[in-house]
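2024-03-11 09:14:02 INFO receiving multi-entity request
2024-03-11 09:14:02 INFO entity count = two
2024-03-11 09:14:03 INFO echoing inputs for audit
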Amino acid sequence: QQQVKQSPQSLIVQKGGISIINCAYENTAFDYFPWYQQFPGKGPALLIAIRPDVSEKKEGRFTISFNKSAKQFSLHIMDSQPGDSATYFCAAGKSGGSYIPTFGRGTSLIVHP
Amino acid sequence: KAGVTQTPRYLIKTRGQQVTLSCSPISGHRSVSWYQQTPGQGLQFLFEYFSETQRNKGNFPGRFSGRQFSNSRSEMNVSTLELGDSALYLCASSLQGAGYEQYFGPGTRLTVT
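2024-03-11 09:21:47 INFO inference complete, emitting structure
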């Protein structure tokens, strides 16, 4: 089974700090890499996604960095806020009609005020 | 636009029974994907329906099935329930398909006793 390895499992940062979550994938055919944010009792929400034609994508305080040769991608949350406290999942798959996503195991982020 | 809705939100069933879960996608979205989320296995892809046709299927036994209606609403059925089927079942809708921007519903929490 194709795997996506996500680390760390949990992360505690101070308000205003940078949160960094990493994911590594195996299948070089994967071409869609989304990040989801999930609050307790809610479904995941798409945060930001990247495709391998770019090495970085930024949306507000959230940035994805993508390293195709290393088969790794990471989520950076700048100026982390207590409201960012949630579980974050990365995923990877080959887009198109045969997309079957594989998810990382999740990172529980706690941002202390 | 109304978001993805799932019914029921909570369900308790007995081992051996069957269950049907319902998902109403965002208006205009033709793709509905189903996922199982458990503490042990994380988020796992069950299947995707696009315009009433199953387009992709994850690695789950045949007890898990689904269908999609002409109005894009989807149902998921699990027959002969096992204790290990206890999970949060999520559906997600998308305009173009699972390999693109997806919007998740709040999930149905299924408990099998």
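2024-03-11 09:21:48 INFO post-check: Chain A has no helices and eleven strands.
2024-03-11 09:21:48 INFO post-check: Chain A has a mean pLDDT of 93.
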